[in-house]
Structures are given as structure tokens and as C-alpha cells.
Amino acid sequence: MTNSEEFSIPISEIFYSIQGEGILVGVPSIFIRVSYCNLRCKWCDTPYTSWQPESRRMTFEQIRETVDSFHCDHIVITGGEPFLYTDLPHLCQILEDHHITIETNATRYLRANADLISMSPKLSSSTPPGRWHDRHERTRLQVENIRRFLQYHNCQVKFVVDTPDDAEEIRSLIRTTPIPAEKVLLMPQARRPDEIRQRENWLIDLCKRDGYRYSPRLHIELWGNERGR
Ligand code: SF4
After folding, report:
1. What is the mean pLDDT, run by run of 10 residues, along the chain of 229 residues?
2. Residue 29 counted as domain residue
């Protein structure tokens, strides 16, 4: 495949912002957001990639040109779910002169050359009612893939925490996978600043008690759930 041929990953948006979550919070980054996801979290903050997916096809050349126009060293490939696409390793290859983070729900695995794999395994509190319930519940945790990512890549593991009841499920997954505690970050489920306020105090207490790192959601604090920021 050449750069001018049709690229097989559907792109939702490419924009320049700062990383709002995780160990690289605050770092100016180019976000390449792919569309489509194999899960349907009930509180998904990018429904335009999951519940109502939209996308356009971009050639390798167009992606590279767009990335170059921002003059930034850090790239975040996010979604949707980037690991749905077998061309993901090729995309990483084309952009290898950048620091690459891939954000994933960790239900699919491919060997992709990224500097940081940012996993976000989904807890049972993410499961929606209705026709997606069973499929989401069956798919949301693929422990073998979490283990593979941990074995072969530099990783962080971010849990979106909705209620205090999530704590036991997180402890159990960390113990049985196992996931090193220093790689674990907890962040509040939120699409608006007031939803962060509702959760941050007890979540910080949980981090202090269990020795996990708290992750802010800086983009939500600054811009709510506005797209492209
Ligand atoms: S895994 Fe991410 S993109 Fe997919 S439904 Fe859940 S929050 Fe949305």
C-alpha cells in the first residue's frame, strides 16, 4: 500500500490540544480519533465514534500532511477503538518520528510500535441496558489481551470510575491479571465538570487508601465535552 492509496482506518477527527488524562496530562498533543468501537459504554464521551459512528476516509498522505501542519512531537491515537484496525501498526510506522500514545479499551490486541499504550478496561458499571447489554458484557474484559499489552509494551491502565462500588472490581482485576499498582490510574466518570466534582473526593480517598494514582480529566474541566478541544 502506498501513501496515496485509501487508508483503511475511518477517521472521526484530527485536532491539536493538550492531553487531559493519564501520566502525560498537560502535554500538547495531536489527537487522531478513529471511528467505531466494539463496546457501547452507557456513558461514552465520544458517542459519535460508538453509538452513532461517523467517519471519513483519509489517505496516509492526508493524515501525514495534517499531522505535520501542527508541528508537535506527541500524537495520541484514540477512538472509538484503534485496535479494531489491522492497519494500525502501519499508521504507527508512518508516524514513528513522533511520540505515540494509543488509547484502547484493551479488548483487541495487535503488535503496534507505540511509546505508550493507554489501556482503559471497562468495568461492569459501563454496561448499558437494552440490546447492547449482552454483547458489551461479554466483550468488555479480555484479560489475556491486557496481559499481552503489559508484557510487550510500556503501559498505563486508566479506570473510569463511576461509583464507589467499582472499587472491589478494580482490586480484583488488578490482583488476578495481575496489573502493577504503579501503572494504575483512577479517573472520575464525567462528561461535565460538575460530574467530576461529584466523584473526585471519594475517588481521591480511594487512591490514597489503595495506593493508585488519581488522574484529572483536564479537557473536561476546561471545555466540558466539546469536540475537537
Ligand atoms: S470503549 Fe471508549 S469509545 Fe468505546 S464505547 Fe466505551 S467509552 Fe466509548
Report:
1. 61 96 98 97 96 89 94 97 95 96 98 97 98 98 98 98 97 97 97 96 97 96 84
2. yes
Domain that holds residue 95: 6-223
B/e letters for 84-103, b = 16+ CB within 10 Å, e = fewer, are bbebbebbbebbeebbbbbb
Q: Is the pTM of this model over 0.85?
A: yes
Question: Ligand 1 centre from 2 Cα, in Å?
Answer: 31
Q: How far is the CA of 44 from the centre of ligand 1 (A)?
A: 5
Q: Is residue 228 part of a domain?
A: no
Q: At what angle do helices 193-210 and 166-176 cross, to 10 degrees?
A: 50
Q: Report the domain count for the chain.
A: 1
Kindly list the protein residues whose Cβ atom lies closer than 6 A to any atom of ligand 1. Answer: 37, 39-41, 44, 46, 49-50, 79-81, 105, 122
Round to whole Å and give the CA distance between 220 and 229.
9
CA 187 to ligand 1 centroid distance, Å: 15
Residue 21: partners with Cβ closer than 8 Å, 6 or more residues away: 118, 158, 185, 187, 215, 216, 217, 218, 219
Atom of ligand 1 nearest to the CA of 80: 3
Distance 191 CA to ligand 1 centre (A): 13
Whether residue 229 lies inside any domain: the answer is no
Nearest CA to ligand 1 atom 7: 44
Asked whether residue 135 is assigned to any structural domain, the reply reads yes
